[in-house]
Design goal:
Layout lengths: L1 H36 L2 H6 L5 H21 L7 H23 L8 H15 L1 H10 L1 H7 L9 H18 L5 H17 L14 H17 L7 H11 L13 E3 L4 E4 L3 H14 L1 H14 L1 E3 L4 E3 L17 E2 L2 E2 H13 L3 H15 L1 E2 L2 E2 H11 L4 H10 L17 H39 L1
Antiparallel strand pairs: 1-2, 3-4, 5-6, 7-8
């Protein structure tokens, strides 16, 4: 009898543990998805009321990853790690800056401040820049200029934009001289280049990253005590993007020849989503024109799903590090950052349904977004960076003066996922409650038999 009672108690403990797991994996997501469908803040302001909660969870995960990264001796030995390590640091800083402007978080919170310091430490870490130093070694030997002084547009853009965000968030002047030097060097280099372009890697120019670089210069100028006039570079560069680098659909090319102003790859969904995240900061009129073309050629709306295709309809497609997962033509990266691009442009009619979808598809849990976390762990060995990318795109600030509200129906995929989580969650929890009740009755029966 005694052994039977112990076994029943163990069964009860296991069932209670499973109930916690099932609640986290199914009931909690069901509540979040369902709430997102009726979230008045999302409909009115284009952002979820859950953002501060997601920020707190992401901050904890980011700090755990950043602490390990800064202490470890492991190298960024893959392209994904090489790029997503500084990308993640920048995305976290930009998310903090945006949420600070909206007064949704307290930047003086100890955990937040530690994460902000960790993010800038990652950007400044020799380990982070080491792969770029190696890639540009031949260029340094030829020109005498390091990877932080010439070309290397991708990393220098992340570096400068991150430092500018840090300055805006903290108000500290410790990096002012570095910000001023980097922004001036990048400005002079892009301004003097024939087409105002530079390479991310030797022989590889991605106009989206150059646009982010110009935006980084403007942002750095905005926090500087000694600003300089950036208007001429902005005007000339945007003229090239809307001129020589405009493809057959009227959108900036995905890849170009920086020395000859020649298009190598036409616009893609992921690159255009990226362009639109910052184009309105530089030239709102051109950004609006590009968004209209983006809507025509890349945004796809149906009863089931609203998203961004990676390639225009009828164009052969493929998957790579830039596209992420592509399903039925929809690009995961293009759609994820399409949320932020639509928010910046005031197109809540696009950003709101995509927000609902991406939150539902990301599988929200009390510990973060499950699928982005798994993707980040498998690709770059970080549980945090997938969540950081979600936080970044969901926290963008509107730049366009006008808003187009969302008055459509909720995408069917959101209803399906909400129903699936509710069904599985209730079924699993109910099953364990039945087991608990049976175990309790069995234990009571054993006790009565003993008496």
């Amino acid at each position: 009898m005694k052994n039977s009672t112990v076994i029943n108690k163990v069964k009860i403990f296991i069932s209670l543990t499973l109930i916690v797991i099932y609640t986290s994996l199914f009931i909690y997501p069901a509540v979040v998805i369902s709430w997102s469908m009726v979230d008045s803040r999302l409909y009115k302001e284009g952002e979820s009321r859950f953002l501060p909660l997601w920020f707190e969870t992401t901050t904890d995960k980011f700090n755990n990853w950043a602490d390990d990264y800064l202490k470890s001796e492991s190298r960024n030995d893959t392209l994904a790690k090489q790029e997503w390590t500084p990308f993640g640091a920048l995305f976290y800083l930009q998310s903090v800056e945006s949420l600070m402007h909206k007064k949704r978080i307290d930047v003086n919170d100890p955990d937040t401040r530690r994460a902000v310091d960790n993010a800038v430490a990652i950007l400044l870490s020799p380990k982070t820049s080491a792969p770029y130093e190696k890639i540009w070694k031949k260029h340094r030997l030829q020109t005498g200029k390091s990877h932080l002084e010439s070309e290397n547009i991708f990393f220098r853009m992340l570096y400068l934009m991150g430092l500018a965000s840090y300055r805006e968030i903290t108000g500290e002047s410790r990096y002012d001289a570095l910000i001023a030097r980097q922004s001036r060097m990048l400005y002079d280099e892009l301004f003097s280049a024939k087409y105002h372009l530079g390479d991310d890697y030797p022989g590889q120019c991605y106009p989206n990253d150059v646009l982010w670089s110009v935006a980084a210069i403007v942002m750095a100028n905005g926090v500087s005590d000694h600003p300089f006039d950036t208007n001429e570079l902005v005007n000339r560069f945007m003229g090239v993007m809307d001129g020589e680098l405009r493809d057959g659909n009227g959108l900036p090319a995905f890849q170009a020849d920086s020395k000859h102003g020649r298009i190598i790859q036409t616009a893609r969904g992921s690159s255009t989503s990226g362009v639109l995240l910052y184009a309105a900061y530089l030239e709102p009129g051109i950004a609006q024109k590009w968004y209209d073309l983006y809507e025509r050629h890349f945004l796809r709306e149906s009863t089931l799903f609203t998203g961004v295709s990676e390639f225009p309809e009828g164009t052969p497609g493929f998957m790579d590090i830039d596209t992420g997962l592509v399903v039925n033509g929809y690009g995961s990266v293009a759609t994820l950052f399409g949320i932020g691009a639509s928010t910046v442009m005031g197109r809540y009619d696009h950003s709101i349904p995509m927000t609902m979808e991406m939150v539902a598809l990301a599988w929200p849990t009390p510990y973060g977004f499950l699928l982005p976390s798994l993707a980040g762990k498998s690709v770059v060995e970080s549980w945090a960076l997938g969540d950081v990318a979600m936080l970044y795109t969901l926290s963008r600030e509107r730049v366009a003066p006008d808003v187009r509200s969302y008055r459509g129906s909720i995408p069917l995929i959101v209803w399906i996922l909400a129903a699936l989580h509710w069904t599985l969650g209730v079924w699993f929890v109910r099953r364990e409650l039945i087991w608990i009740r049976r175990s309790i009755r069995s234990t009571q029966g054993d006790s009565n038999g003993t008496l």
